[in-house]
Give the backbone structure.
Amino acid sequence: MTDVATTTVEQQLVKKTHPVRGILWGLMMGVGLSIVLVLTKVIPLALAPMLVVLVLGTVVGTLWSIFGPAKHPKDVVDATSHVVAEAAVPAADTTSTDTTATDTTEPPPIPEAPPTDM
Amino acid sequence: MGRTLRSAIAITGLAVGVGLSFGAMSRAADEPPPAPFDQIGDLIPPTEPVDLDVDTAGAEFTEIAALVATSTTDFGGGSKLTGQCGGLAYSYGENGDLIDAAIDLGDDNPPIDLLEGGQAFTSGNPFKVDTRGVVAYYGFMPQEGAGPQNNSWFVKTSGVSLDSGGDANVDGDNRNAGTVDLGADLPVKFSANAKINGELTSDNLAPCVGEGNIEFIGNGLTDPVGIAALALLGGGLVGLLFNARPAMTYRG
């Protein structure tokens, strides 16, 4: 049961990248870095070295956003059973939720019969 | 006089870094300068000159040039000023102390450092200017005779124009002197090393061409532009770490 459910979860997880965000944040980092390097006199105040640093920052940001280590959802590790249950539901029956609710609900207690005087 | 003055400033600025200056730094006086520069130091106003007029500056230039002419400076690459132009410049820090001085004799040799001797405006010995200080200058083109007529000039760094202009100069003015208060004129204070080049052409004289290195002295990263740069750098890093990192997510 667990093996089947885990396989179901792995198939559902996909890696989502943000290259546009990487370009924009990398550009911002590159601009800041190039000015810092000029002010600290590491590079001269000239167009070419400043552009090189700027482009480098943008490329690093883009590569990070595509190939960087991916964040994992917390519930995969912490609440496997919960995820398994959630993942298994649509696979079992995607048209009816009543069935699942019925299956997982405990039956009501049977009332005791009244005593008889015989 | 006004437009000729601008031309003279441009050329002198090339030779002496008048164009742009920043920061305050005391000269390291570990070793006494070689002769004759040990005597020249006494001729330079130790504190910011209130007013540098053409006649006074011209006389000062002649006196200093006579001493410098006796020196044996080894010239190399890194800076130059060719043509019939020359002059001198003194750079003062925010507190009025002299931080650098240089002269160009008007020959085809590069400018000379007046405080330590040797070639000035090189990458190893850039002309120091305080972005909160003052630069006093005296420039000529040529030393004797009519000045550049129908002239045009530019000053650039990395191909980007810093300033340019031109003048008919019908009076034939050939020299100028004055001060540039960078603390008042520059809206942004910063620290940087820059290479600057420029040229002045005219109808009646050979072109004056120069290039050299300037060290702008400011407060580094504690200047407002430095704080802004650090904010950009930090913001970019935080954005990359927390907003652009790939994430595993559920399909659909």
Observations:
- The beta strands of chain A are 13-16.
- The mean pLDDT of chain A is 72.
- Helices of chain A lie at 2-12, 19-39, 47-67, 74-78, 80-92, 98-104.
